[in-house]
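Technical appendix A lists one of the benchmark inputs used to test multi-chain prediction within the project. The record comprises two sequence entries:
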Amino acid sequence: MSRKTLFARLVLIVLVAVVRIAQAGDERLPAEKTEVTVPSTTLQAFVSGSYPQILASHAGQPFILAVWSVNCPSCMKDMALLHQIHQEKPELKIVLLAADDLSASEEIQQILGKIHLADVENWVFAEEDTQKLRYEMDPKWYGEIPRTYFFDAAHQREGVSGVLSEADYQNRIKKILP
Amino acid sequence: MAMNAGYSSSVALRRPSWMGWLFLIGAFGLLSCAQSTQPVDSDASRVHVHGGLQVAAAFGPDGKLWRATPDKQHIYVDYSTDQGKTFSAPVVINPESQRIKVSGENHPGITVDCAGNVYVIYPAEGEKQPAMLYSSVSADGGLHFTSPAPVGGKEEEANRYQAKLIPGEAGRVYAFWHDERDRSDWRLPGNAIYSTVLAAKSPSGEMVSKVADTLCECCRIAAALDNKQRPVLLARFIYPGSIRDHGLILLQEDGKPPLLRRATVDQWKIEACPEHGPALAVGADNRFHLAWFTQGGVRQGVFYAYSIDQGEHVSDPLPFGNAERLPSHPDIMAQGQHVVLAWTEYDGVKTQLQVMESGDGGQSWSAARAVAEARNEADYPFLLSHQQGIFVSWNSKTEGYRLIPLH
């Protein structure tokens, strides 16, 4: 394990958000209600080996893994629907992975707070070689985002790129839930 | 991009206002550099010395190789007189540190005009917005650079990013970029392309013009000069039905609006950030050469095509690269009938730099050959040319910056 990886794992695991609420321009963000207290977010450092770790920690469970970025306007639409799904089906685990880097942690946490997804399992790319990280997850994926994976209980998965409609989500969730 | 900042609204297919005056200046302006430059794709970029992977490089008219290198807070410029073997002591462009925001699709840019003025453009956090572009110029051979200034005017709070510089005639340098100033609602997709002309006396441009709308938000813009020295752009647009295919934009003279022509029909129906912009070159015969990536319903992968009538018709797309190895981020260069493609492939462990060439204007092609490898993170490849030949400018984390001669 490189020193950098070690550092990422040991030091960067927990980052507590100091969220700036409702500053100028926030009305342009997707979240409709920004004037609420935003919970703190734990961001986990996604490094080489994190993907099997995520699978292992959800062994036997269906879950959704959604890759997004602070630089991806399309992703915000997906995140709004994911929040809705999270409200309706809290039993369905949602894992979010920000395809940014650690320097964007504060921005990531602000957005997660505003879109009410701070309380799901949240990860951020924490190695510079993001191509390698992507490849470990999916050797066919060119990196376009949003990218959403639907895992059934046996961890057979379907990966989809782009914003999904509510119907798209519901159909796929039906397939993975027992 | 940066969604937490100004979105203003470009909506569907609004026709752009245009920038004819820019042209008038560019095409008919000062004759201080009478020899027009070849339409060389100037956005060479790469590697790094001080930390950043995304480096830009370009040859000056005297054959010097200029390089802009980012780190987290600064942009450095140095040059090489021995084709990239050694470099001069770097000069810091922004003595006051900034949050530099480079990425694969959002490289810094560097170019040198025919008089030897060195122009640099780079993305950094703005005073009022997360994503802003700054430019600086040196009129004394790189000894001193002007204090970086925001490109496209200070009054707007919208994000600007993914700039493309190309040197035009008469010492003018065109800059094109993604601009969010016309977006009012983040839910409505699409940016605008804005443009200005940089000059030694106006390093951040004076007048700003809108070139096009409905630009896909996360893909870099490609640009080249046609045989009348007019800029031609290739970019990923959002067509009706959320189709993210490519269009050519031909800038016109006399204040006429630019011509917009759909160039690829891959039917990539997706609402996403592909982060995979196209490449464009124009040969001396005015043949347009296009390279792009798609995951469309019609075809998937990286493709090449040419047009002999400025984009009114485009040849059948030719797939290239090993589809099993994520062929990505092509660059293209044309010198007469000689056309070169460079791209990267990844096998899970290493990145290979692949090249293939055509000697007949893109009709037939050599087999692809690997010209370099990188064991860890690698930048996009950029093709550069000078009298000494054609080179690939390529940065990678472990191997460092390489200027790879192709002949």
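Helices of chain B lie at 20-28. Chain B touches chain A through 36 residues (CB under 8 Å). Comparable benchmark entries are summarised in Table A2.
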